[in-house]
Amino acid sequence: MFELEEKIYFYVLFAIPLLLVAFLMLSIWKKKKQKQFADHRLLSRLSPEKSVFKLYFKLMLWCLAIACFSIALVNPKFG
Length: 79
Fold this sequence. Notes:
- The protein is built from 3 helices and 2 strands.
- By secondary structure, the chain is mainly α.
């Protein structure tokens, strides 16, 4: 049996979809600005080792951190 002390802090989890929407809008804006700056061949030459994995990994870590923070604020009690 478990008890949740402060259930109101589950609303913090709504920050995750907001973060995902902000990330999507930012990546669309970046692509548009890069296309205005130079063509794809030149951009790949200017930044040859651009990692997409790091960007998505960082987003995943932020979402996981928000979720863990929310669960910690709720303060579940077991036993």
